């Protein structure tokens, strides 16, 4: 007597879906571990003393390192990074070129977040004209920036953009510049500086992993249940037919 008869179609569905659900669960666990390591790396470097800006270009792995700068902002070539929200309010991140006197290098410094007064009214900001001593840290995104369409080249200044690419900006301005964005620490030139280090923390990935594994367990449980249920019904049906025949 066959004790397990799930049927061909359910078997095909389970054999296709179950490995995918398990794979997605382990993928989320891997992503969570990557984020945990990244956050620990970030915390370690943000706790260290800032290094002089003159050493920045020679640093092999500059991500999240603190840097001491002395120089001036270029107020003429301002970028306003759009689609940034804080507390449910829409706004922009104010990003400007900064010329570091010690290294002679141009740096793209993010001064923080500003709210939109309203969509047709540009955010209001000021740019210090004097030489400043600043601390900042190097921001390196964990993945490629997604854009529905590239920002138009040669747009007027201040320029509203949806992504920041220093490697594209410096040739346009005819300058020798650093390849990554720097984010300002609190000080005279800073606005609102509460950037998230990662868009999704390790605990979120763990939660998603649990969901995928739970779905896999539920699918396999249903497969076993209906397989046994079908076998039981077929057994009862065969016994009933035999009795009628006698």
Structural class: alpha/beta
Tell me roughly what share of residues is in helical segments. Answer: 25-40%
Strand order of the largest sheet: 2-4-5-8-6
In sequence order, what are the helices and strands, one letter per element?
HEEEEEEEHEH
Total number of distinct structural domains: 2
**Tally of DSSP helical segments:** 3
Calculate Rg over CA atoms.
29 Å
Instruction: Give a quick account of the main beta sheet: strands, pairing sense, barrel closure.
Output: 5 strands, mixed, barrel
Describe this structure in words.
By secondary structure, the protein is α/β, with parallel strands linked by helices. It folds into 2 domains: 8-37 and 202-240; 49-184. The protein is built from 3 helices and 8 strands; from the N terminus they run αβββββββαβα. A 5-stranded mixed barrel has the order 2-4-5-8-6. Strand 4 (89-100) and strand 5 (106-115) form a beta hairpin. Helix 1 (8-46) packs antiparallel against helix 3. The protein starts with 7 loop residues before the first helix and ends with a helix.
Features:
246 residues; alpha/beta; 2 domains; five-stranded mixed barrel; 3 helices
Provide the fold topology.
Layout: H1 8-46, E1 51-52, E2 66-73, E3 79-86, E4 89-100, E5 106-115, E6 132-139, E7 159-161, H2 166-173, E8 177-184, H3 202-245
Parallel strand pairs: 1-2, 3-7, 5-8
Antiparallel strand pairs: 2-4, 2-6, 3-4, 4-5, 6-8
Helix pairs in contact: 1-3
Provide a quick synopsis of the model.
The chain is α/β, with parallel strands linked by helices and 246 residues long.
């Amino acid at each position: 007597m066959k004790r397990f008869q799930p049927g061909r179609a359910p078997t095909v569905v389970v054999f296709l879906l179950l490995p995918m659900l398990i794979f997605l669960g382990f993928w989320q666990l891997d992503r969570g571990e990557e984020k945990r390591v990244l956050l620990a790396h970030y915390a370690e470097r943000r706790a260290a003393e800032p290094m002089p800006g003159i050493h920045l270009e020679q640093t092999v792995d500059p991500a999240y390192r603190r840097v001491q700068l002395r120089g001036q902002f270029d107020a003429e070539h301002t970028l306003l990074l759009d689609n940034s929200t804080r507390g449910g309010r829409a706004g922009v991140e104010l990003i400007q070129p900064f010329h570091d006197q010690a290294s002679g290098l141009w740096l793209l410094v993010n001064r923080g977040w500003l709210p939109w007064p309203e969509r047709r009214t540009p955010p209001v900001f000021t740019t210090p004209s004097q030489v400043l001593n600043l601390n900042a840290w190097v921001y390196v995104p964990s993945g490629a920036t997604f854009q529905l369409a590239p920002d138009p080249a040669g747009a007027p200044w201040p320029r509203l953009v949806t992504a920041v690419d220093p490697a594209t900006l410096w040739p346009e301005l005819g300058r020798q510049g650093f390849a990554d964005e720097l984010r300002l620490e609190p000080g005279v030139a800073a606005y609102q500086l509460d950037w998230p280090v990662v868009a999704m923390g390790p605990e979120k990935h763990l939660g998603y992993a649990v969901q995928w594994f739970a779905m896999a367990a539920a699918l396999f449980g249903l497969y076993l249940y209906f397989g046994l249920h079908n076998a039981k019904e077929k057994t009862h049906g065969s016994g009933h037919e035999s009795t009628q025949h006698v």
